[in-house]
Design goal:
Elements lengths: L1 H29 L4 E5 L5 E5 L11 H12 L7 E6 L4 E5 L8 H15 L6 E5 L32 E7 L2 E4 L8 H10 L3 E6 L6 H17 L8 E3 L10 E4 L4 H11 L2 H16 L5 H14 L6 E2 L11 E2 L1 H11 L7 E2 L5 E7 L2 E10 L3 E9 L5 H13 L1
Parallel strand pairs: 4-5, 5-9
Antiparallel strand pairs: 1-2, 1-16, 3-4, 3-10, 6-7, 6-8, 11-12, 13-14, 14-15, 15-16
Length: 397
C-alpha cells in the first residue's frame, strides 16, 4: 500500500513538472529578455526569468499607491471640500484635494449649498487652493496639454481637464452633465484642434484650474436657482470664519481606487498619494511628506530596498521596483484584489506602459496552484505579448 502511494505521488509530481516546463519554455520563446516572476500563495517560485533585474513599473506603481492609501486613509475615507460665507455673502471655497470632484459631484454640492445659505445671490466667490503649494512639482509630468499630464491641485474639477468639441471658433461641451464656461471656451480655442478632445488646463499658470473650478461651480449654482453676482477670484478663507457647508465626496476611497486602477488615471493617483502624507504629517500637502510616509511604511514591511518611489502614479521613469519586492506587496494587497481589472479567466491585473516598457502584475487564476502572484516586465514586443504570457500562466500552471 505504501509503495503504491509513493508511486502515485511521484506520478503526480512528474505529470506536473512538464506543465511548468512548458510554461517556462513558452515564456522563454516569446520574451527571452523579459522579466517574469510567478509565486504561489506560499511564496514558492513557479517561474523566475530575469527576476533579479530591477525594472521601471510605469502605471503598475498605482497598485503600491492604492495599498498605501488603504493602509493610511482606510477604505471608507472621503475627501472634503469646505464652504464658508461672510456677512457680505461672499462665498469662500477651500479645496481639499478631492480627486473626484466631477460635474456630478458639483450637481450635489450646489443645492446643498443653497439650502445652507439661502437662495439670495452670492456677492462674490473666493477660491482657496492653498492646501496645495503653488510650487508643487510631480516628477514625470510634462507641459504637453495632454490629459495624462494634468496638474495636481487642491481645487480642480473633472480631473483638471476640459472635454469639449471645437468647430472653428465655436466650442461646446462634450459632456451633457458639464456646462461650458467662458474659461473653458478660451482654453479650448487657444490650445485644442478642431473636433472632440480632452485637454489638461494650462500648466504655465496653475491658478487657471482653480478659476475653472469656480466658474463651473457657479454654473451649477445658477442651475440650482442661485447666482454669483460678483467676481470669482483666488484668495484664502479669512481666519475665524466657520464652514457653512462641508461636502464629503459621495464615493468612498475604495471606489475611487477601483476607478483609478481600472482607468489608470495619473491625476487621481497623485491626488491620493499626496493626501497620504498630509493626513499623517499635516497640511499643506507636499511630495516630500508623502514619500517619507510611504518609505516608512514600506520599510516596516521589508520593502525599503525593493520599491523606490518618486511619485504615486508611475508617470516618472525614476520609479524602480524589483519583481520580488512587488510580489511581496501584491501579497499584502491580496485582500483588495477585487479593485483591479479582471481577465475572462478571473485573473486580476494592472498594466503599465511607457516607450520601451510594458508591465503587467497581479493575481493569476490557475487550475493547479489557485491564485498566484505574477510580475511581468518587457522591454520589447507588442503590448499584447504580456497578456499572452499571462494566458500561458493561467493555462499552464
Amino acid at each position: 500500500m505504501c509503495h503504491r502511494l509513493i508511486a502515485f505521488v511521484c506520478a503526480v509530481l512528474l505529470a506536473a513538472f512538464p506543465v511548468r516546463a512548458d510554461v517556462k519554455d513558452t515564456i522563454a520563446k516569446q520574451a527571452s529578455s523579459g522579466l517574469v516572476l510567478v509565486l504561489d500563495k506560499d511564496g514558492n517560485e513557479l517561474v523566475a526569468q530575469n527576476a533579479d533585474e530591477p525594472f521601471v513599473p510605469a502605471s503598475v506603481t498605482k497598485v503600491v499607491t492604492a495599498w498605501l492609501a488603504l493602509e493610511v486613509l482606510g477604505a471608507d475615507y472621503r475627501f472634503e471640500t469646505r464652504f464658508y460665507m461672510d456677512d457680505d455673502r461672499v462665498l469662500y471655497v477651500r479645496g481639499g484635494g478631492d480627486p473626484f470632484l466631477v460635474s456630478e459631484e458639483l450637481a450635489l454640492i450646489a443645492p446643498a449649498l443653497l439650502a445652507a445659505t439661502g437662495p439670495e445671490p452670492f456677492s462674490a466667490m473666493v477660491l482657496d487652493g492653498s492646501y496645495y503649494p503653488a510650487d508643487l512639482v510631480i516628477p514625470g509630468i510634462e507641459n504637453t496639454g495632454e490629459s495624462y499630464d494634468a496638474l495636481n491641485s487642491a481645487l480642480a474639477v473633472n480631473f483638471n481637464t476640459i472635454n469639449a468639441i471645437r468647430d472653428g471658433k465655436t466650442v461646446r461641451s462634450a459632456e451633457e452633465q458639464t456646462p461650458i464656461t467662458p474659461l473653458a471656451i478660451s482654453q479650448f480655442l487657444a490650445r485644442a484642434p478642431n473636433g472632440r478632445g480632452r485637454i489638461s488646463l494650462a500648466q504655465e499658470n496653475p491658478e487657471i484650474s482653480v478659476r475653472y473650478a469656480g466658474e463651473l461651480l457657479a454654473a451649477f449654482i445658477e442651475n440650482a436657482g442661485g447666482a454669483v453676482d460678483g467676481d470669482i477670484s483666488i484668495g484664502t478663507v479669512p481666519a475665524g470664519l466657520e464652514p457653512i457647508h462641508v461636502h464629503r465626496q459621495s464615493r468612498p476611497l475604495s471606489e475611487i481606487l477601483k476607478l483609478m486602477l481600472i482607468g489608470s488615471n495619473n491625476y487621481i493617483a497623485n491626488q491620493i498619494f499626496l493626501e497620504i502624507g498630509a493626513d499623517l504629517l499635516g497640511g499643506p500637502v507636499s511630495l516630500d511628506k508623502s514619500l517619507r510616509v510611504a518609505n516608512q511604511i514600506l520599510a516596516r514591511h521589508g520593502l525599503a530596498n525593493s520599491i523606490h518611489l518618486e511619485e504615486g502614479s508611475g508617470i516618472s521613469r525614476g520609479n524602480h521596483f524589483t519583481a520580488r519586492g512587488l510580489a511581496k506587496l501584491l501579497d499584502l494587497f491580496a485582500p483588495h484584489a477585487r479593485l483591479m481589472r479582471s481577465t475572462k479567466a478571473g485573473s486580476r491585473y494592472k498594466t503599465g506602459t511607457f516607450s520601451g516598457v510594458r508591465t503587467l502584475a497581479g493575481f493569476a487564476k490557475t487550475s493547479s496552484h489557485g491564485d498566484v502572484r505574477f510580475v511581468i516586465s518587457l522591454n520589447s514586443g507588442p503590448g499584447k505579448l504580456r497578456f499572452r504570457i499571462l494566458q500561458a500562466i493561467e493555462q499552464g500552471l
